[in-house]
Amino acid sequence: MAYVWGHPVLRSIAVTSAVVNLFASTALAQIVLYAKRQLSASDGEVSFLIAAGAGGVVLVSLVTSRLRRFPLGRVLVVSVALNGITILGMGLTSNYVVAVVLWAINNAMTVLFSINTMTLRQQIVPDRLLGRVMTVSLVLAWSVIPVGALAGGFVVARTSIGPVLIAIGVVIVVTSAVAAGSALGRARAVPDEPGGDRDDQAVDGRVEAR
Fold first, then answer.
1. What's the chain's Rg over C-alpha atoms?
2. What b/e string do you get for 106-118 counting C-beta neighbours within 10 Å, with b at 16 or more?
3. Is the confidence at residue 198, as pLDDT, over 60?
4. pTM value?
5. What b-and-e string marks burial along 38-68, b requiring 16 or more CB atoms within 10 Å of the CB?
6. Angle of helix 127-142 versus helix 96-124 axis, rounded to 10
7. Which residue, among 9, 139, 6, has the nearest Cα to 71 in the 3D structure?
8. Are 185 and 110 in contact (CB under 8 A)?
9. CA-to-CA distance for 116 and 190, rounded, in angstroms?
10. The pLDDT value given to residue 196
11. Res. 45: pLDDT tops 60
12. Is 125 helix (H, G, I), strand (E, B) or coil?
């Protein structure tokens, strides 16, 4: 915990992940309600909407390696911003086809963020601490999901799903703007160097947070 919180990049990843998961968990928990109430979708259309999210995950996982030409911090910030924009768009639309596209992009951006933050942690953290840092990071990021889903459901039950998604989208977009100005936004992947010692080159975080 001390290592994660003391490292500017790891701390920024933890805070950004926790905020996004806290709010975005409502979108996933309420996806069936959203499809039924706002999109007037049939049962089959609800299934296809959910499957579109899985399709987005598969597609982005196939092209993630090609994004290495871009600064890693920029990819992470853009993925968070698009996550918020797609949720915001879903709150504004009642068009089924548009919602399917937005949900696919949303799921793709979630996985893009996860893949690249995992990569960044593996490059920053010494081997002797990697397992513990990964565990702490995931606990910080995932423990808020049930809290967010429960709170979101409470709010949705007393309002409606559309305005809640709009508010969530705005919060996540603002979070991406804050992340852009943090160490996360300046992070860069460490080039692969055969025979290099990651414990020595990345332990203080200077390589990826300049």
1. 18
2. bbbbbbbbebbbe
3. no
4. 0.86
5. bbebeeebbeebbebbebbbeebeeebeebe
6. 150
7. 9
8. no
9. 12
10. 45
11. yes
12. coil
